[in-house]
Amino acid sequence: MCRPLYSLRSLTCLSLTPSVVEESISLEAPVFVSYHPPIFQPLQSLMLSSPLQASLLRCAAEGISGGVNDWLAKGLGKGQVGALVGEKLDANGKGEGVEGRLIVLDEPLPVSQLVDRIKQHLGLSQVQVGYPSVTGDVRTVAVCARSGGSMLVGRDADVYLTGEMCHHEVLASVAAGKHVILCGHTNTERGFLSVLAERLRKEIQVDGLEVIVSQKDACPLVFA
C-alpha cells in the first residue's frame, strides 16, 4: 500500500483479494500477513541459486511445526500425533517441516462422530464423505490441508482428511477401504488464521499493534 503507515494495525488473510484490500483500507490496517503469497504464479521452483528461494528452503530445513496440519489434528480428539511420512520428530513427537500428520486416536469412534468433530472444528455445516464398501469404527486419520491427494493416497490410515482430491484419487482410496473426508481447499486453512493472529500478537511486542483476521476472506464456492 502506498499510503504512509498511519496505523499499527495489521490484517491476516489467506489470499490478498480485492475485497480484502478494501477491507484493509476501511480498517486502516496498512500491513498484510497473507497465507498465500500475492506473487504466486511466477515462482515455478525453489532454487538455492535464488537468495529469496534459498531462504525459504532454509526455513523448511530448520523445521516448521505447529502449523495448519497440527491445528487440524487438534480438532479430531485425543490421540497420538506424528508425521505422515518419514520425517524427523522432536522430543514431543511433533514433525519438523514435512506436509501431513497421522493421528492415532486414543479410542476408536464411528465415522459420523469424527465428521461431527471436524465440522465443529472448521465451523462447517457440510463436508463431503466417501465411504468404502465395508465401514466401521475408525482410529487412524491421515491429515493434509489444502489438496492432499498425492500425499494421502496409499497411506496406512482408516481415514483421509483433506481439502480436496481429484475424482480418481477418491475412487482409488475408497476402493482400498479408506474413508475420505473432503472439507474444501481453503476451509482446511482458514480457521488457522486466528491461531496465527494470536501468535503475531505475542511475538510482535509493539504498543498499540492490532492484528485483525479478515472477515472478507471466504471460500469462493458455496452449497446451493
UniProtKB/TrEMBL annotation:
Pfam families linked: DUF34_NIF3
Cellular component, GO annotation: mitochondrion
Metal-binding recorded as keyword: yes
Record carries keyword Chloroplast: no
Molecular function as annotated in GO: metal ion binding
Residue positions binding a divalent metal cation: H36, H185, E189
Keyword list, A-Z: Metal-binding
Family: Belongs to the GTP cyclohydrolase I type 2/NIF3 family.
Record protein name field: NGG1p interacting factor 3
Species of provenance: Armillaria gallica
